[in-house]
User: Fold this.
Amino acid sequence: MAHFRTATALRRRGGDPVFDTELDPQWTIGTKLHGGYLLAVLAKAAAEVSSHPHLTAISGSFSVAPEPGPAVVEVEVLREGRGLTQLRARLSQGGAPCTEALITQGVLTEGDAWWSGVDPVEIPPEQDCLPVPADGGGGFRIGLMDVVEQRLDPAAAGFAVGQPSRKGVISSWLRLADGSDWDPVSLLVALDPVPPISYDLGIAGWAPTVQFTAYLRGLPAPGPVRVRMRAGELGGDRMDEVAELWDEKNRLIGQATQIAAVRLP
Amino acid sequence: MAHFRTATALRRRGGDPVFDTELDPQWTIGTKLHGGYLLAVLAKAAAEVSSHPHLTAISGSFSVAPEPGPAVVEVEVLREGRGLTQLRARLSQGGAPCTEALITQGVLTEGDAWWSGVDPVEIPPEQDCLPVPADGGGGFRIGLMDVVEQRLDPAAAGFAVGQPSRKGVISSWLRLADGSDWDPVSLLVALDPVPPISYDLGIAGWAPTVQFTAYLRGLPAPGPVRVRMRAGELGGDRMDEVAELWDEKNRLIGQATQIAAVRLP
Assistant:
């Protein structure tokens, strides 16, 4: 099994902010590498050249889906400030840009929020939720589910038996299968959970992400995290999805939004 | 008065995707150029080199605040696809990168959504809302309010008299003062309205945007738009804000999220 740490390992080329990496075939959905995993590789490279330790914001644009195997990450520092470092990073394969990201590094703490307008997630205990199998049915393999243990709120799992709730909300528990705790970089994987929210609205087919943005808000407590994925609006063959993530101490530690392509009925 | 069209005008340097522009001193808050205005300049440049007509997504990172005056925009096409073009763009001044953006161009329509999970905005009629003056008090000038006519929901205007509602929601009506209708690019200005939502939570001081992301979902009907700005969570000297925008036909035509720096009490 590919540990998150080894699946995102980088080898720096001398003093330049250029890194070689080996994209891991297990962090996939069907034959496509998972978007949160690709952004995690970029974020790890950005951290290597930043004087601020933690990922605090990242926006990525997915133009070409890279294959598992060798890839190159190039980082450029846009500004090194007192409280944060702003960078851009590119993942390319065979000279073609695949994923481009804008990244802000800062300092995260284990402190509590000063004010929150976010509704807390409601989800049954982890053991009462349903594991998502790596076998997606019909020969469709979700390799990601071998390295991420995800358990769905039964209230939103009806799509699996042809009875989607049509509420546009799917909540789940998530752990890394290698037993390691989440950190701000690996949380990018948790912020883009499986399946796309369109499943809960009765729409079959995958929903490739076009652009994705995440904010990391605090250092996660050890243990599993809970994510709530909500649909915003679907129209014009596009949908937006909002993900929010809580740790074991009930702190909102991550947020994400994405715009994805979807084939509407 | 600086019309939006002239304030975002570009001169292309021959065949390269490099443009000269003149950042307009009226599109400012205090001495700082407005973030939505800067992204609009980048989006206009991206449209010039894309085969798809409409801005559909943009993520920007604000590293250095440029001064009004000459600036350069460079665009790179990441991928030209069948349904969309993905690009990156950089605004720089004196050779220093100021604003970097990831942009997706596509095709927007005047059609309705297929499904929506977004609560409709609630706001009194435009004439019952309160104009935001360009004089921000204490010598603080909001030049943007000379070129954008913004009227605040009175329910959220209490901060102006020291009585913030502390609900974390501010809604307003917006028109371009030059009389032109909104389009997907100018809506970037409307998606970053004044003041920051922290005012409604009783926190004084401006809140500079670190990263900002917008999705444009449809072509706006002529007339004013309504925007609702909501605070997500405030903690660790950061806050996230979500903006949603409706046109005269009550269609959700734009959405945005930003993470901003804020000095918490």
Notes: The first strand of chain B starts at residue 10 and ends at 12. Chain B touches chain A through 59 residues (CB under 8 Å). The radius of gyration of chain B is 18 Å.
